[in-house]
Amino acid sequence: MLKVSRLRAELESERFFARWIFREEVGSTMDIARELAEAGAPEGTIVFAARQTAGRGRRGRGWESPEGGAWFSLLLRPPMELCRAGCLSVLAAVACALAIRERYALPVRVKWPNDLLLDNRKLGGVLIELAAVGAHIDWLIVGIGINVNNPLPKEARLPPLSLAGALGHSIDLEEFFAVILRALARWYLRFLQEGFEPIRTMWAELSALEDGIWVQRGGERFEAQVKGLSELGKLIIERSGRIEELIAEEVTLTLRE
Length: 257
Ligand code: BT5
Fold this sequence. Notes:
Layout: H1 4-10, E1 19-26, H2 29-38, E2 45-52, E3 70-76, H3 85-104, E4 109-111, E5 115-118, E6 121-133, E7 136-146, H4 163-167, H5 173-194, H6 197-206, E8 212-217, E9 220-229, E10 235-239, E11 242-246, E12 251-255
Parallel strand pairs: 1-2
Antiparallel strand pairs: 2-3, 3-7, 4-5, 5-6, 6-7, 8-9, 8-12, 9-10, 10-11
């Protein structure tokens, strides 16, 4: 069980987190965060759940969330255009990967747009949901799921892995949250001040997409070479000699063996 008072104490100096909501069990933390966002909750509102009964991933996929893992949603109100939303998914993945690398000395990598990988196994993922007013973001919820001490799904798109599994022992969940949340707050505030460039640079160092990839887009599947990340967080690829940009919502990528 997450000890809420301890987590609060760990993050006392972190002014960014405006409001904390803890639940034992929810359908999805995304739904609660969305209701709060629509009711005008401030940036920095965070919703945690010990377990989710209907956790979700991207594109209608499910997310298994039994007790022992880190399942939460963070409400942001970045004052920017909708076209920059893709940057936030990359920001969240990069911040989590760096935090885990620093604290647990594990070589976590990021797979655009939203996976956290360790030895090509899936440690966690990021899900973004948002609403716009005109061309601007009204609210944006960063949903993060990371396998920590929890049992893993029997079947998954990528072989799953937990931090406890990687380290060979269970870890202190409150400390884990504190490490992750601190990194998210720092990178987000830096993003607001300095833009996407520092994150893009880190992404290039952490990316698991070094070689060729398979791209699944609608009914189409093709091989491509990764060239980098655009200023808007889109993936730049080369396909049969032509440069294209991929939009996160439209594609699923597989690493080429
Ligand atoms: C993701 O989706 O990776 C985004 C996951 C975001 C989950 C968080 S938890 C807090 C917040 N509340 C929510 O309801 N969601 C967010 P995607 O790339 O689409 O991966 C989904 C796929 O991963 C599934 O189809 C499964 O194959 C696999 N999967 C499900 N549960 C998993 C787990 N615990 N660990 C590893 N893989 C899993």
